[in-house]
Amino acid sequence: MKRRQFIALLGGAAAAWPLAAHAQQPALPVVGFLDSGSAAGMAANLAGFRRGLAEAGYSEGKNVAIAYRWAENHSDRLAALAAELVRLPVAVIAATRSSAPALAAKAATSAIPIVFQTGSDPVKDGLVASINRPGGNVTGATRLTTELVAKRFEIVSQLAPKATAIGMLVNPNGVQTALQVAQMQKATQERGLTLHVAKASSDQELDAAFAAIAQSGAAVLIEGSDPLFIDRRKHIVALTISNKIPAIFFERDSVLDGGLMTYSASIADSFRQVGAYVGRILKGDKPADLPVMQPTKFDLVINLKTAKTIGLAIPPTLLALADEVIE
Questions:
Q1: N or C: at which end does the chain have fewer Cβ atoms within 10 angstroms?
Q2: For the stretch 108-141, what's the b/e string if a residue is b when 16 or more beta carbons lie within 10 angstroms of its beta carbon?
Q3: pLDDT tens digit string along 167-189?
Q4: Residue 144: its pLDDT value, please?
Q5: Same structural domain, 113 and 255
Q6: What CATH code is carried by the domain that includes residue 198?
Q7: Do residue 75 and residue 170 come from a single domain?
Q8: Do both 164 and 307 map to the same domain?
Q9: Cβ of 4: how many Cβ atoms within 10 Å?
């Protein structure tokens, strides 16, 4: 080969090296995001999840990709969606808003790490062996929402000390509904009160449920915790106001949207915790070594503007207990 041809060949090969090196760069790690509800009303929660990822040095689209799968409140879709994420495959699965997505993911894989976000007890749900030592490929964060049902009843009942009937709104298809209703039945029976349980799993059923609550004579309403009610937050708030029934919600965003009050831990912060754990696992941590995170602070938030709208006077003793008052 002539010297000039050799130099030209060498130069062409060198020019191709950067392209070859670029082509061989590994693809972004993919995080599967499996949720029992829909994307509606999830902006704040997803922002919290991304903040958690950022704490671990990850940014969606830059050094991590996220494959979202929404069950749209159809629990029978979760198994197929979880299997789909396993086939992709993903490096980690974040399963959020109830134990159902996490249980579906756990049934689909024993190898891929799973980080759940739920409001119930993950030990009772069969997700982990214990809070401090999860074991296996599953860990996560719980807000203990289900365990707060009786506490919410205690708070909202102060608005109607002479009440004889209490209303409760539940999703009949909810994973934790039976437990929540049982807790409320126990709490109301101890006070000699009647509990009226209204069931709704769609917008049309919500309207009918509130009509039934109004006819029952229930003095106050406790909203059962369920992802379905997050998706239909504004509709439910509007119904409580139009029916002028004092209601306590299981998440703060409902009160920001005009609901009367809530007693809860921050759901957005719970999603942040999940994002942080996902980031740590991407860096090499094992789920079995990461204790389940629990809330350390619960906030009572009261919307005084809504109280005035429905003609309700909040007792000064209850206002004094509030962590936040919206006026």
A1: N
A2: bbeebbbbbbbbbbbeebebbeeeeebeebbbbb
A3: 999 999 888 899 899 999 999 99
A4: 83
A5: no
A6: 3.40.50.2300
A7: no
A8: yes
A9: 8
Peptide bond into 29 cis (omega under 30): no
Q: Is residue 69 part of a domain?
A: yes
Query: Does 5 reside within a domain?
Result: no
258 Rama class: left (phi>0) / alpha (psi -120 to 50) / beta: left
- Please, which residues have CB within 8 angstroms of residue 303's CB and are 6 or more apart in sequence? 255, 258, 259, 260, 261, 326
Contacts of 54 (CB under 8 A, 6+ apart): 275
- Both 97 and 228 in one domain: the answer is no
Number of domains in the chain: 2
101 shares its domain with 239: no
Range of the domain at 77: 30-144+266-289
Does 307 map to a domain? Answer: yes
- Residues 11-34 have pLDDT tens digits of 444 444 444 444 445 589 999 999
One domain, residues 228 and 186:
yes
Pair 72, 126 in one domain: yes
pLDDT at 14: 44
Asked whether residue 196 is domain-assigned, the answer is yes
Alpha carbon of residue 201 to chain centroid: 17
Query: Model-level pTM?
Result: 0.79
3-state secondary structure the chain: CCHHHHHHHHHHHHHHHHHHHHHCCCCCCEEEEEECCCCCCCHHHHHHHHHHHHHCCCCECCCEEEEEEECCCCHHHHHHHHHHHHHCCCCEEEEECCHHHHHHHHHHCCCCCEEEEECCCCCCCCCCCCCCCCCCCEEEEECCCHHHHHHHHHHHHHHCCCCCEEEEEECCCCCCHHHHHHHHHHHHHHCCCEEEEEECCCHHHHHHHHHHHHHHCCCEEEECCCHHHHHCHHHHHHHHHHCCCCEEECCHHHHHCCCCEEEECCHHHHHHHHHHHHHHHHCCCCHHHCCCECCCCCEEEEEHHHHHHCCCCCCHHHHHHCCEEEC
Question: Do 138 and 284 have their domain in common?
Answer: yes
Find out whether 247 and 222 touch, Cβ atoms under 8 Å. yes
